Amino acid sequence: MKLVIAGGGFCGSILAKKFDSRDEFDTTLIDENGFFEFYPTLPRLLTDPDYESKVRLRLDSFLSDTNLIEDKMEKITPEFVETSADRFKFDYLVICTGANYPIRLDNTEDVFTVNDVTSSLMIHERLERSESVLIVGGGLIGVEVASELAADTDKKICLVHPHSRLIERNPVSASKYAERFLNERNVRLIFNDKVVTNEDNFYTEDDEMIKADIAIWCGGLGFDVSFLHGFDGSIFSDHGGLKVDRYLRLEEHDKIFVGGDITSVSEEKTGHNADRHARLIYQNIIKHSKGKRLSKYQTKEFPLLISLGRKDGIFTFRSFSFAGPLPALAKYILERAAITRLRL
After folding, report:
1. Mean pLDDT, to the nearest integer, of 204-212?
2. 293 Rama sector, left if φ>0, alpha if ψ -120 to 50, beta otherwise
3. Among the CATH numbers 3.40.50.300, 3.50.50.60, 3.40.640.10, 2.40.440.10, which is that of 2-100+221-301?
4. Is residue 137 within 8 Å of 217, Cβ to Cβ?
5. Residues 71-102 pLDDT 10s
6. Does 3.50.50.60 match the CATH number of domain 111-220?
7. Which residues contact 341 (CB under 8 A, 6 or more apart)?
């Protein structure tokens, strides 16, 4: 049976590794990048580009029997996946192409996003020539980016957030700790406002002018679905993700599964949840191929680790949180464990 996996992030890489040793499946993994990248540590690369080797792993270093295609995906249809050079028909397809941070400005000059290792290293190079930085968005990625820069550089930093507190989906105690961490490092925080214009300077919705050499956009997840063709519009959620049934199949498509950030599942978009998606999809493809009943996906709350530079962090779970060096150490251990598990 032909299995095509579109995307080599957390979900795609873990899934490909699990199918790599199964002879009954002819597995193809399509990923233009050719690397697995530990996305939760990307902010570290903004100040330490040498850390790249610790968070990036070539896909062919842990996949020996998988057909690896390092090419741009041009088209995904209900019958085949097409790259710039070839077309791949499938019996089963898994779409796990991830999410991004679309820049919601007409003028995107000097505005960057932390999407992958390459973009992070590009930002690092630009930061070397910059004195001031604007961070747009105070959610998880925005706080981690601002904290990394505040802890390890002398840049003048301003963070604009549309809500009344940072990381607002987390406990108030976590928000207060993050705010105190940034305030102590002279980060200017602007709440309840949005960056709407990039001209000679940046301007907010409330007409606040912000002078910054560059901006790092960390607000509002988006999904690139431009390569999807031949599907009914009903598969898209209101937020642009892909609707899935209780088995993580694309709605109305029996042999197409969806995993990772691009799903419409209401949960935190984390590597841990993408890992859970991969494991369930693996089980369900095997079960479906044997005519067995599929397993249902159940959302669960899990602890969250938020980095504040290299030596500080926040642990949150439901209404509980604590902060300090232990969460930072725990996140580092999870990073090493994720890389090691793929290598083994």
Report:
1. 98
2. beta
3. 3.50.50.60
4. yes
5. 999 999 999 999 999 999 999 999 999 999 99
6. yes
7. none
